């Protein structure tokens, strides 16, 4: 049984981790928001990201300690690769004009890949939390809420910035995703 001060410390630690994991969603939401996005799509994206911020640490917690050393590197490269793919596609389509949008955030595949790319780092955190006896419900709910809320904030900010950048908004948003993808990879 945890003492009151230990419980408060655990809650604060979980909230700090939730905000830190949500920073990716915020930053990458700005990149997607720069494409120009409707409020309905913003709600859908932030909800899916919130769900993945619950699912991924939960899966990580259940995966266990023996897999963490192998999957820690794989998930980072996978997330980086997804973000490079999405960012490269956004930059390419911004200069090419209106073409076929294979990884559009409005398509189920594009939304899934974006949410997975933003949330995959929480899998590794979940593996780490699984080794400790942290509060499972509090952890995944805090991660989900922060991920979804920060994604929504990023999408709103990106949409606002995109109005000022005009046609270059999608290219700038793609460059942001590319930069984060390369940061994950290297």
Automatic annotation (TrEMBL):
User: Which residues are listed as membrane-spanning?
Assistant: 12-33, 45-64, 70-88, 109-130, 136-156, 168-185
Q: Principal place where this protein is found? A: membrane
One of the entry's Gene Ontology molecular-function terms is: manganese ion transmembrane transporter activity
Report the HAMAP family cross-referenced here.
MntP_pump
**Location of this chain's protein in the cell:** Cell membrane
Q: Which InterPro entries match?
A: Mntp/YtaF (IPR003810), Put_MntP (IPR022929)
Protein name (record) = Putative manganese efflux pump MntP
Keyword list, A-Z:
Cell membrane, Ion transport, Manganese, Membrane, Transmembrane, Transmembrane helix, Transport
Q: State the similarity comment.
A: Belongs to the MntP (TC 9.B.29) family.
Q: Which domain of life is it from?
A: Bacteria
Task: State which gene encodes it.
Answer: mntP
Please tell me the species this chain comes from. Answer: Paenibacillus kribbensis
What is this protein for, i.e. what is its function? Probably functions as a manganese efflux pump.
